[in-house]
Design a protein that fits this description.
This is Acetyltransferase, GNAT family. Pfam families: Acetyltransf_1 (PF00583). It comes from Streptococcus merionis. Keywords: Transferase. By secondary structure, this protein is α+β, with helices and mostly antiparallel strands. It has a domain of 102 residues: Aminopeptidase (3-Layer(aba) Sandwich), CATH 3.40.630. It is built from four helices and eight strands; from the N terminus they run βααβββαβαβββ. Strands 1, 2, 3, 4, 5, 6, 7 and 8 form an eight-stranded mixed beta sheet that branches. The protein is globular and about 35 Å long.
Amino acid sequence: MTMKIGCEPYLRAASLFIRYTVFVLEKGIAAEDEFDQNDEKGIIYAVLYRDQMPVSTARFLPQGEKQARLTRVATLKDERSKGYGAQIIQALEQYARDEGFEHLVIHSELTARAFYEKIGYKPFSSIYEEDGEPCQSLEKYLEGEQY
């Protein structure tokens, strides 16, 4: 397994491939809703590869000087339940620490909330709908206490 984090075009392409497969083809989300203005040049993507095959991804969006949002977390169907999603999140948490970020936010589908809670994220919003799915926002302070 190889983890890559960066804004290079090949990482963007690998991430978009995974997301198209998972969100558009598998979950039926409209492509125009899945791909947005945040999928532009310079955005940070994390991609986990098994050999040459991209299997899991997430996107890192700064939301201020100390806060960022982890978005579009996805793992190909045949690769789930192997811990790849947790590896992606942990890699982006380390990237965030290295870049001086202290607070991470994730907008989670309710079906994935337990996964995020298991790796230390805590709900902080009421339930809302996003792209036709019930969701809730979760957060994690990287150094423990809120600032």
